[in-house]
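In the design runs reported in the main text, the only information available to the sequence generator was the tokenized backbone. The following block is the verbatim input for one such run; it is reproduced so that readers can re-run the procedure and compare outputs position by position.
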């Protein structure tokens, strides 16, 4: 029997980012197939990864060029894996008043078409999908009508549509302690960003100022002088 894995890249990467993790793609397919292989001998047809390249302006900035280079390196890593394929949509930019927002396009269509095609042709008997969007409901319904079993992998309830949970034959929740990923070593977050900004202003002195080894200890026997205004 055969299975195919369909991964909404934006969905899984957003979860990993919240936990400061980067995926270990080499081990991911086996991890996702493991629950099914406990009951049936299963081969992998292919693992599909659906994503969008980052936005690029007509005259791209250095930041945009860097992001694109990082994206291409990451996609090349996935493409180099045996029985993995990448399907790329397009990032659409729009304006909500004065706020710039970005939205993935074509990703849900590409994923749905691949799932329905493989199930209808009998290429696979099991479809494993990592997603949370209700746009995939028609594809899952069609896959089940073709006789395939659909397993859904997702995050907490607030990140996945209720109908998707009800429709899937089997639901697996992400366990970030066991998920094949590596912890991001570099610090991040608002505190670190504030420190980096202050470092740039003070010439990198905030680290020394905050270090316990360089902060003078207070002598409890030394009396503090009261401040007096000058005459």
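Verbatim output:
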């Amino acid at each position: 029997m055969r299975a195919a894995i369909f991964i909404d890249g934006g969905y899984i990467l957003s979860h990993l980012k919240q936990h400061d993790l980067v995926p270990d793609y080499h081990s991911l397919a086996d991890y996702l197939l493991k629950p099914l292989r406990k009951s049936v001998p299963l081969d992998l047809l292919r693992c599909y990864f659906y994503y969008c390249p980052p936005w690029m302006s007509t005259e791209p900035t250095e930041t945009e060029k860097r992001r694109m280079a990082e994206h291409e390196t990451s996609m090349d890593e996935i493409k180099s894996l045996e029985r993995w394929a990448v399907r790329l949509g397009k990032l659409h930019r729009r304006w909500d008043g004065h706020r710039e927002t970005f939205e993935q396009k074509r990703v849900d269509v590409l994923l749905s078409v691949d799932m329905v095609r493989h199930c209808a042709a009998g290429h696979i008997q099991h479809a494993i999908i990592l997603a949370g969007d209700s746009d995939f409901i028609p594809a899952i319904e069609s896959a089940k009508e073709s006789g395939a079993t659909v397993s859904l992998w997702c995050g907490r309830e607030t990140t996945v549509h209720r109908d998707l949970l009800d429709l899937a034959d089997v639901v697996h929740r992400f366990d970030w302690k066991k998920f094949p990923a590596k912890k991001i070593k570099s610090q991040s977050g608002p505190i670190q960003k504030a420190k980096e900004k202050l470092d740039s202003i003070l010439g990198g002195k905030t680290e020394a100022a905050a270090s316990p080894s360089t902060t003078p200890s207070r002598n409890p026997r030394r009396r503090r002088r009261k401040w007096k205004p000058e005459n």
